[in-house]
Amino acid sequence: MGVIIWAGVPSTSVGVVIERYPAQPGPSRRLEAIQVPGRNGDLLIDQGAWDNYGQDYEVYFRAGAGHTPEAARIVRAWLMRPQGYQRLEDSYDPDFYRMAYYQGPADIENAAHLFGRMTITFTCKPQRWRKDGEQPISLTGPKTIYNDLFPALPKIRVYGSGAGTFYIGSQWAEISDIDGYVDIDSELQDAYKDTINKNATLTLKDQNFPTLEAGENSIRWDGGITRLEIIPRWWTI
């Protein structure tokens, strides 16, 4: 029996059973096609991003004689109570998770007043995040990290004191004031320590936050930096 884990709550907790193995949809690349007079074909502008997509699950739940409306309310609450993007996991792809939202409507078929059947459609961000990418990688000296997926936007905790610079391949980030540690979040494009903003202490090559590119990433540092802790955020589509 397959399980959906939606916003941290498994489908089994509300009696929802997946009827069949779900399809594996994926995102579309975000392209703009422009027709130029007198020129064959289209001119393509690649925006370097992907669109959201829908993930369907065909499910049913048993309710017992005369209890389908009550069970349907419980299922709807499980789906509709979480707001905004939430974590979506399932037992068919256990090493990955996605960020998704559920808009509804939660239309439920009442079958013989004994059980309900429905198709749940989550709207997913294009990334499939690998769960081991949530685990920090501790570096006490120079090291090469290999990324076999798409370019990743890590969160990097830099430990040390004073000023220092760290390098990832040809990229670099210089920090003028490290007081114990500072966090550099490439996804949020932000530097901070706890609730204190540290962007003014950070200088970046070409003003780009560090990326773990596909392939080998050689990492080293100098100055007052003593070690790094990297949450890589590996992902694919």
Strand and helix map with partners:
Blueprint: E1 4-6, E2 9-10, E3 16-18, E4 29-35, E5 42-50, E6 53-62, H1 68-80, E7 86-90, E8 96-101, E9 109-111, E10 115-124, E11 128-130, E12 137-139, E13 143-147, E14 155-168, E15 171-185, E16 190-193, E17 196-197, E18 202-204, E19 215-231, E20 235-236
Antiparallel strand pairs: 1-2, 1-7, 3-6, 4-5, 6-10, 7-8, 8-10, 8-11, 9-10, 11-20, 12-19, 13-19, 14-15, 14-19, 15-16, 15-18, 16-17
Molecular structure report:
- The chain has 237 residues and is mainly beta.
- The chain contains one helix and 20 strands.
- It has one helix spanning 68-80; strands at residues 4-6, 9-10, 16-18, 29-35, 42-50, 53-62, 86-90, 96-101, 109-111, 115-124, 128-130, 137-139, 143-147, 155-168, 171-185, 190-193, 196-197, 202-204, 215-231, 235-236.
- The strands form three sheets. Strands 1, 2, 3, 6, 7, 8, 9, 10, 11 and 20 form a ten-stranded antiparallel sheet that branches.
- A hairpin with a 2-residue loop joins strand 1 and strand 2 (9-10).
- The longest helix is centred in the first third of the chain and has 13 residues, at 68-80.
- The radius of gyration is 23 Å and the shape is globular.
- It starts with a strand and ends with a strand.
- The model has no long low-confidence stretch (mean pLDDT 95).
